């Protein structure tokens, strides 16, 4: 098989093109008309020294690459099996695959070059000698999170991109590392293929909408995904390329994995040829399983073909959402508390193009910091992750300190869970670093995805930050005037995740009822406040099978979030004994119990019932609390049962542990108020039952508290009799991909059957 590769910026040189301009006079003249200057003179003579300026370089390279391809096509009479291009060269690959004609391609790269040339203050540098993981480790350890990886050229040649002063600051750090063979600044005006090109990206996206693209005749390997382009996402992928990393190494490895493959560079120079040789020497082929694709659907018995956009795992959900978080799949995994959503889980998902939230609830600050630093050292800056923050009604100071830690460690994505309203720490996190692009649109560096199950809570997150909170934060010098002003123009949450019946805190909502209501509320709030950027609505709760995921997307979900199914995986931060129990459950094996953190209010959580007594015992304790004003009012036999069966120790012993845990003012309150003392002692059981489960203690398996929804029961039935029946074969990234791939296949089949049944 044969792949043509097209070079990008950096391959240009004076006198490139040679006789091509005379061989293709009509196209050269067409280029002159479009550009307003002589393309031949620019490439052959460059009298004004413009050739190395981005706005001239990109059109010049496109023309020379295109004419070189046409000459090769004329000489050989055959097309390649695959095409790929490096950055700008990808437009030539698309031209070769008949996505657009010569004139359209030239207009696109002219605009692209103009917009990219406007970027100033940025810089790029090639680091030779370190691999991608080592680059990330250096950036993380030296607080250089403002630098992105722009190009993965070979296993040992990585290009970084960022503000010029940051790139200059990075130079001595890298040069001090013995394995670094070279640190070379690139002759560019901007931080290309990084977050700093967002303004160019947005304007180019608008410009792109005026053009029509034809079906691809040859597979084109995308820089963004290192996989073949999807026709339905062609424009969006081109837009994403401006701010995304160029995955050249992975693209070549993917092509190597297709079989015996020859590569030919079509255009000036041998830059790509050299890179490919290094990749072939240093890396192994990448073997992948192709996702199922749908075929054209006949629209009538006469076999008149009716084609529709093929749905793929990577096209499900909102393309804008995927682009904003740099995701391959619109798939998130929720932050299960006490590190059950572990650092290892988050890393696995990030590397697979999904996003997981580190479960910080119930962890101390040092544990949270250690987890975040582990994540940073094991993923690339371009890979997405988030942190979970659970509403802490009784300890707002902990919420404040946790937000401080998130900001200090460079966490950009926050999952706000179980909040009854917005809080000042959330406002502060979201306001930090707010800025605007060239068009005046607010750019949020710290994103919040709010998990909600009640419309009034969703409305609070869909509203701008409350003015009194902004004024208080300003008075305390916790935000700037500029950040306060920009906070008034955007909602508190960037995105909303609608949580239906699920594990942990739940209002027993039904997705088919909640989703339409929340989408309408979002639309109303968008209209009311005239937000420039759309708030995306995701779906969570009950998603454990392709059928459930399909229902979520059909209800309008821009993304889905799973939870319970991830708790029964290798990466989950809970005990093997819990995973053994979870593997056996079915859809009916959950129950509701009081939540330990809000015991007095009676709010409920969904937990595992099969194989444990926890839900029955927890409900019994809450019933006693509701009926009596003190422990002294409870009959002796009941107290004996609680101490012997539930606590496995005396109430006095429990109270000693309570006193060692709670602050003095809480204990003082308990001494004065017998009912409050009873609440603290009963709440001890909830912490105890959680510790038992997480540690896998043999002390009392029947008292394990395991938050879980029925989605896991459905998942268990789906994978029954397959290798995934055993949790030791379950990995979060593989589950996520399998779920998305089979959801796409199911949707294609359903659409096909609907059309066929109507003929």
UniProtKB/TrEMBL annotation:
Enzyme Commission identifier(s): 2.3.1.39
A single Gene Ontology CC term: cytosol
The entry's keywords: Acyltransferase, Transferase
Uppermost EC category: transferase
One annotated GO biological process: fatty acid biosynthetic process
Segments forming a coiled coil: none
Domain called Malonyl-CoA:ACP transacylase (MAT): residue spans: 5-304
Protein name, entry field: [acyl-carrier-protein] S-malonyltransferase
Species for this entry: Dictyobacter vulcani
Lineage of origin: Bacteria, Bacillati, Chloroflexota, Ktedonobacteria, Ktedonobacterales
Gene, per the UniProt record: pksE
């Amino acid at each position: 098989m044969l792949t043509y590769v097209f070079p990008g910026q950096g391959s240009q040189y004076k006198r490139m093109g040679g006789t091509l301009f005379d061989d293709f006079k009509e196209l050269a003249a067409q280029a002159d008309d479009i550009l307003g200057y002589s393309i031949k003179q620019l490439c052959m003579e460059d009298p004004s020294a413009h050739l190395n300026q981005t706005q001239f370089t990109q059109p010049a390279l496109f023309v020379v690459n295109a004419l070189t391809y046409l000459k090769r096509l004329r000489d050989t009479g055959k097309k390649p099996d695959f095409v790929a291009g490096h950055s700008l060269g990808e437009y030539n690959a698309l031209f070769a695959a008949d996505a657009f004609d010569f004139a359209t391609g030239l207009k696109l790269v002219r605009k692209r070059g103009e917009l990219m040339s406007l970027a100033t203050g940025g810089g790029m540098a090639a680091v030779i000698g370190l691999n991608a993981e080592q680059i990330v480790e250096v950036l993380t350890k030296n607080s250089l999170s403002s630098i992105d990886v722009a190009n993965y050229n070979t296993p040992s040649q990585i290009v970084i991109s960022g503000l010029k002063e940051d790139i200059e600051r990075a130079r001595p750090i890298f040069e001090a590392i013995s394995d670094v063979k070279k640190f070379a600044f690139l002759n560019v005006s901007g931080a290309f293929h990084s977050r700093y090109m967002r303004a160019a990206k947005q304007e180019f996206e608008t410009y792109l909408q005026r053009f029509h693209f034809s079906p691809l005749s040859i597979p084109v390997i995308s820089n963004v995904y290192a996989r073949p382009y999807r026709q339905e996402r062609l424009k969006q992928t081109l837009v994403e390329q401006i701010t995304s990393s160029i995955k050249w190494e992975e693209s070549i490895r993917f092509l190597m994995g297709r079989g015996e493959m020859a590569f030919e560079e079509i255009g000036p120079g041998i830059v790509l040829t050299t890179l490919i040789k290094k990749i072939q020497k240093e890396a192994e082929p990448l073997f992948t399983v192709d996702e199922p694709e749908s075929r054209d659907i006949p629209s009538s018995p006469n076999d008149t073909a009716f084609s529709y956009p093929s749905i793929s795992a990577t096209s499900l959900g909102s393309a804008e959402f995927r682009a904003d978080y740099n995701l391959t799949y619109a798939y998130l995994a929720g932050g299960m508390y006490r590190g059950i959503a572990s650092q290892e889980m988050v890393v696995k998902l990030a590397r697979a193009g999904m996003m997981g939230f580190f479960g910080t609830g119930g962890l101390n600050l040092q544990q949270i910091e250690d987890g975040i630093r582990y994540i940073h050292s094991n993923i690339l800056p371009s890979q997405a992750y988030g942190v979970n923050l659970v509403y802490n009604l009784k300890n707002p100071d902990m919420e404040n300190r946790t937000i401080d830690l998130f900001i200090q460690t460079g966490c950009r994505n926050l999952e706000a869970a179980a909040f009854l309203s917005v809080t000042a720490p959330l406002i502060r996190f979201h306001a930090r670093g707010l800025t605007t692009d060239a068009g005046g649109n607010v750019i949020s560096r710290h994103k919040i995805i709010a998990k909600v199950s009640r419309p009034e809570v969703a409305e609070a997150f869909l509203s701008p930050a409350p003015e009194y909170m902004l004024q208080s934060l300003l008075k305390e010098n916790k935000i700037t005037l500029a950040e306060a002003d920009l906070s008034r123009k955007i909602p508190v949450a960037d995105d909303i995740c609608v949580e239906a019946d699920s594990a942990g805190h739940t209002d027993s909502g039904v997705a088919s009822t909640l989703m339409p209501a929340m989408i309408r509320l979002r639309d109303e709030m968008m209209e009311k406040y005239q937000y420039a950027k759309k708030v995306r609505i995701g779906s969570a709760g009950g998603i454990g099978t392709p059928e459930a995921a399909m229902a979520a997307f059909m209800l309008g979900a821009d993304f889905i979030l799973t939870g319970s199914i991830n708790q029964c995986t290798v990466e989950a931060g809970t005990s093997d004994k819990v995973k053994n129990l979870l593997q056996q459950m079915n859809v009916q094996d959950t129950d509701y119990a009081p939540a330990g953190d809000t015991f007095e209010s009676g709010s409920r959580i969904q937990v595992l019932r099969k194989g444990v007594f926890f839900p029955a015992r927890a409900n019994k304790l809450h019933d006693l609390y509701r009926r009596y004003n003190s422990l002294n009012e409870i009959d002796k036999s009941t107290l004996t049962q609680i101490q012997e069966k539930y606590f496995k120790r005396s109430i006095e012993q429990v109270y000693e542990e309570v006193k060692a845990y709670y602050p003095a003012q809480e204990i003082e309150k308990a001494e004065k108020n017998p009912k409050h003392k009873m609440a603290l002692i009963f709440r001890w059981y909830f912490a105890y039952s959680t510790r038992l489960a997480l540690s896998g203690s043999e002390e009392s398996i029947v008292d394990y508290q395991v938050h879980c929804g029925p989605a896991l029961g459905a998942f268990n039935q789906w994978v029954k009799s397959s290798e995934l029946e055993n949790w030791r074969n379950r990995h979060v990234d593989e589950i996520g991909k399998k779920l998305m791939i089979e959801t796409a296949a199911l949707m294609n089949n359903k659409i096909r059957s609907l059309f066929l049944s109507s003929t």
